[in-house]
Here is the input.
Amino acid sequence: MEEPAFDLFVHGTVFLDVVFTGLPSLPARGTEVQASGMGSCPGGIANLAIAASRLGVRTSLSAAFGDDVYGDFCWSTLTEQEDVDLTHSRRFGDWHSPVTVSMVVERDRAMLTHMHPAPVPDGELPAGLPDARVGFAHLDARPREWYGKAAEAGMLMFGDTGWDEEEKWSPSLLDQLEGFHGFLPNSAEAMAYTRTDDPHDALHALASRVPVAVVTCGGQGALAIDSTTSEQEWAPSLPVNALDPTGAGDVFGAGFVLGTLRGWPLRQRLAFANLCAALSVQYVGGSLAAPGWGDIIDWLARTQAKAAAGSSHAAELAASYGFVTDVLPATGRISVRRARATIARASDAQPHRSG
Here is the structure.
């Protein structure tokens, strides 16, 4: 049987993300606040696409792009720098790219977005579906025809959701999960949509709708049920000095997709996704903070060194993540680029540090 052209297909909205970090507080009316850090990068669905591509997942993205400088930056970053296929994307004149400003205060963020609907009728994007093993969608109030078509074509469909601007959290959104394999909301979203007040109850409610249900709980780790294997697991988060949580959920999703493609047990899928998310929040910029294999190699080497020096916590981590040693790629990209304050065409690749 011929190998699919792609491992992952994603469709959604790409934003230009401008992230400010180091804020002492959010700006109050009539005041000005200085940020000590800033990064610019493609955001929205691009977070997931770039995070997956950095792990060696062959990724195709369908989205609308403006023909402005912001669109140029996002398009070139995705294609030339991050090796994401944009065959099923389109560019539009006289439509400016969506922009989000993310302001990080005390390890959480508030966001401000400006956008207009893309000048393309519903159903025109994606115009066609690539041959891919997995599909991933950001669910919103409008169901998309391609969900069912992708599932019928044999794609293993995953989804998550974002902030409900109207804060109605209609349970009818979950009806879109018919035919989906997995759903990965955070705990606040999961409880809101299932009308529960405990992440565990929300998880079980979602498990009645999809074979694989995952609820991410920030610093409390992640919960999951895989009914196809009768696994139910919890994986703790990793203690890190978080700088910017923007896009961490998408990075988690990319790690979970990789584990799914590799056929890992549920606990390893959760642990690896947690590791990817934990590494990402230590840098500015959601998509370009996503780790590459060099970051994972460096983290594992540091952890093993601390374990050898007598750290019991590091020894526990080294044992829990010992499986990563067996899945490290023999070849491929090691260094990755980080977000810069300026909207630059290219930025310096972070050098890989071994040992």
